[in-house]
Amino acid sequence: MFQALLTVLFATPMLAAAQNEQPLNPLHLVVAVTIWCLALGGESIADSQLDGFRRNTANRGKSCRDGLWRYSRHPNYFFEWLHWFAYVVLAIGSPLFLWSWIGPIVMFIALNWITGIPFVEAQSLRSRGDDYREYQRTTNRFIPWTPRP
Asked: Is residue 108 included in any domain, yes or no?
C-alpha cells in the first residue's frame, strides 16, 4: 500500500502540469527542458564516473572521489531529485500548481531519509570503513558543493 501511495504522489506533479489550461509559455518550456536535460546529463555522468571507478580493481575498498563524486557523495541522487523541478516549472499557472511541489519534496525526503542515502551510506561504511568516514567528513552528502578540508 505504501508503494501505491508513492505512485500517486509521484504522479501528482505531472497531473498538475497536465491540468495547466494556460498556453505553454516558451520561457517555461525552455527552463523545464534545460532542468530536465541537466538532470539527465548529470545523473548519467555521475553513474558513468562511478562505473569507471568501480571497474578499476585498484580502487577496491576505496570511495570514488572522481568528477562529480568529489563534490557530492550522491550526485546521481541529487540529479534524480533535480529533474522533478521541471514539472514544477511546467505547472506554473495550473490550478494544481502547489501540488507540483510534491515531487521534489517527497523525492528529497525519500532519498535523504527513507530509501536511498541511509542504506547506501550504511553499506559503504561496512565495505569501505575509514576511507568512507573520511569521504563523509570532506564531501557534502547530497547537494554538490566544494569539498571541505
From this structure: yes
